[in-house]
Amino acid sequence: MLHDSFRVDRKGQSTFDRTMQGINTLDDRGIKYNAIAVVTRRTLANPEAFLDFFYERRRSLIDFHFNVLASPIANSGDLEYGSNDRNKFYQFYRRLFNWWEEKRMAGGDFPIRNLSQTLERLAMYGHSEAPSYVCETSAPLRSLNMDADGNLTTFYAGLDIGTEADRYGDGSGLALGNIRRSSLAGMLRSSKLAAMVDDFDKSHQRCAAKCEYFSVCPGGFELIQWRDENNTGHDTPETVECLVHVKTLIDAALDFIDSADRRLSDNHDEYHQSTN
């Protein structure tokens, strides 16, 4: 079972039945909810079963979002991924798009936020009023995140004190500070936040200048393209998160659109041939 492969309690016991009990309670009371589900290697191998589980509960779902971990977890098997896995993720995304379209054509619309937002960004490509998705989603203070120890981060979820831990000289990485030791007002006035904002601005400018996916990139996937600290004359290569979360999904979406256009064209030609 996908759920209990990762979601066990402190005693190592299954949490699936308890989770379903909570879901069924919401259903019984007519309370709608969102669902976010983490993608693992087991999910990649069987995406239809993964989606079918949530599809059966679509009348209770306001929104559904699948989540590939922002950073791969090394030596964790099913939660580890790298650039060599690009084709696996491409095939996964294509199967999601095909499954989604089949359900829609059968009259069973199902919200998958990742897919719909990707198509929306592509539809806005080249429009003068298209927003800068990266800058908007990773704007400072647009979101605030706090871990169990009181460390605060911003820009986007997934950052922590271990990310670029020594970059700002305090050993706290991309954390603004710790709410147990500093006030939020003090953090917002700090020179560290100002330096971080400047770094992110430079990172966005570098991506905009060098990446052909930038205008349709949603941001928020470890897009910290720091310049090479050793001054070897080149920028840090794309991160694996950029490759898996953004580029591969965009490629799959474009190919899905292309195949849908071809089907429409073929159907159009068949219709005219049959009427002539």
**Can you tell me the residue ranges where pLDDT is under 50 for at least 5 consecutive residues?**
227-234
Rounded mean pLDDT score: 83
Helical element count?
Answer: 9
* Cα-based radius of gyration, to the nearest Å: 22 Å
State the end-to-end distance: 54 Å
How would you write the strand order of the largest sheet?
A: 3-4-5
- The shape, in one word, is globular
Q: What percentage of the residues does DSSP assign to strands (E)? A: 5-15%
What is the SS-derived class? mainly alpha
Q: How many domains?
A: 2
Largest sheet: 3 strands, antiparallel
Protein name: SPASM domain-containing protein
InterPro entries: Aldolase_TIM, rSAM_sf, Sulphatase_maturase_rSAM
Organism: Candidatus Competibacter phosphatis
Can you give keywords for this protein?
276 residues, mainly alpha, 3-stranded antiparallel sheet, two-stranded parallel ribbon, 45% helix, globular
Polypeptide structure, described:
With 276 residues, the protein is mostly helical. The protein folds into two domains: 3-111, no CATH class; 133-245, no CATH class. 45% of the residues lie in helices and 8% in strands. It is built from nine helices and five strands. The chain has helices spanning 16-28, 41-45, 47-55, 86-105, 113-123, 133-137, 184-188, 191-210, 240-275; strands at residues 33-38, 61-67, 145-146, 151-153, 175-178. The chain has a three-stranded antiparallel sheet. The chain has a two-stranded parallel ribbon with strand order 1-2. A hairpin with a 4-residue loop joins strand 3 and strand 4. Helix 5 (113-123) packs across helix 9. The longest helix has 36 residues, at 240-275. It starts with 15 loop residues before the first helix and ends with a helix. It comes from Candidatus Competibacter phosphatis. This is SPASM domain-containing protein. InterPro entries: Aldolase_TIM, rSAM_sf, Sulphatase_maturase_rSAM.
